[in-house]
Design a protein that fits this description.
four-stranded antiparallel beta sheet; six-stranded antiparallel beta sheet; 2 domains; 325 residues; 48% helix; 10 strands; Jelly Rolls; 13 helices; alpha+beta; Arc Repressor Mutant, subunit A
Length: 325
């Protein structure tokens, strides 16, 4: 199947994988159209895999903590694994995202290759995000490797897995050579101490997991702060620094998200809104309606009807998996 035809099918097919990469072939290619996603963005998330995001149309804004990176069409970014991030666009934007496990290149964290070529860059104080632009030779070379990776996985010629590994290795060495020149201290290995931003991020991720595991129950700020072992004021501060929202705002957003998931899963059934509100942790239906409308710019009933008409699911923060089609 031709590459452009695959992209066309990807736009029309809303089927999401449960994992980002497979075990036999730990590379996943995703089509991301931000305007069709939850809140029209890839909402705050993280994943173990490294990610290469190639912007095909528009301008994407990558958010990591208090920093933002504007990436225009034709450019790309390399994101380290396990870093909290979000992506939004101020205009229609399409991204092809490649996710891969570092073990695919280096054979595991205990190997000589990982120790020599990855540990420092992927550890504390190493890579968070690297932007590749076509405005310089460094960026153009990286973008050529990235386009080769995407095209190879869309066309899937014989041996495409080996070709992909080769292109990823070339891209990694290209990035590493530049990084070590700019930051020779990385040769000493990853730092044993977390920076203040990394401490914020680890606390925020821990709080997010607590919220996601208990959202259907009555959760207070005291509960979240106690779980992370900080004061309520500090809990609000690190959440704001990491995500620019309060813990309570994130809790309500996650409850709305889970209500949308439940409606997607039961699109053809009559789902009582009052029961749905209770299932996702809201104390009453009127407050649920208010928060849902404020978050989604539509009511729960209108959203449910839209699901029935469109038969699409736009709730994955990762996009549509092209490599599994």
């Amino acid at each position: 199947m031709a590459r452009e035809k695959r992209l066309k099918i990807a736009k029309e097919t809303m089927v999401y994988a449960n994992t980002h990469t497979g075990t036999d072939y730990p590379v996943g290619i995703y089509y991301v159209e931000l305007s069709k996603m939850f809140l029209e963005r890839a909402y705050w998330h993280w994943h173990e895999e490294l990610e290469i995001a190639l912007v095909r149309k528009g301008t994407a804004v990558f958010c990591m903590g208090e920093k933002t990176y504007r990436v225009s069409s034709g450019s790309a970014v390399l994101l380290n694994g396990n870093h909290l991030h979000s992506i939004y666009a101020e205009e229609p934007c399409e991204i092809i995202s490649t996710m891969f496990n570092a073990d695919y290149l280096f054979g595991g964290k205990e190997t000589f290759l990982f120790s020599k070529y990855a540990a420092a860059a992927l550890g504390n104080g190493g890579l968070t995000i690297e932007v590749f632009s076509g405005q310089d030779l460094y960026g153009r070379t990286a973008l050529e490797y990235i386009r080769n990776i995407v095209n190879t996985n869309l066309e899937q010629p014989f041996g495409y897995e080996l070709i992909t590994k080769s292109e990823l290795s070339k891209l990694w060495m290209h990035y590493l050579n530049r990084t070590l020149k700019l930051c020779p201290a990385l040769k000493k290995g990853p730092s044993e101490n977390l920076s203040s931003a990394e401490v914020d991020e680890e606390r925020t991720k821990k709080a997010i997991l607590f919220i996601q595991n208990h959202y259907e129950k009555k959760i207070t700020l005291d509960d979240i702060a106690e779980y992370v072992h900080v004061s309520k004021s500090e809990c609000c501060r690190f959440f704001k620094r990491s995500m620019d929202v309060s813990p309570f705002d994130y809790l309500n957003t996650w409850r709305v998200y889970m209500s949308a998931v439940k409606m997607q899963q039961n699109a053809q059934e009559k789902y009582q809104i009052a029961n749905l509100a209770e299932e996702v942790g809201f104390q009453n239906a009127s407050y649920f309606n208010k928060i849902f409308k404020r978050t989604m710019n539509t009511t729960p009933l209108e959203y449910r009807e839209e699901i029935k008409r469109s038969h699409r699911d736009a709730l994955s923060p990762y996009g549509i998996p092209l490599a599994r089609m």
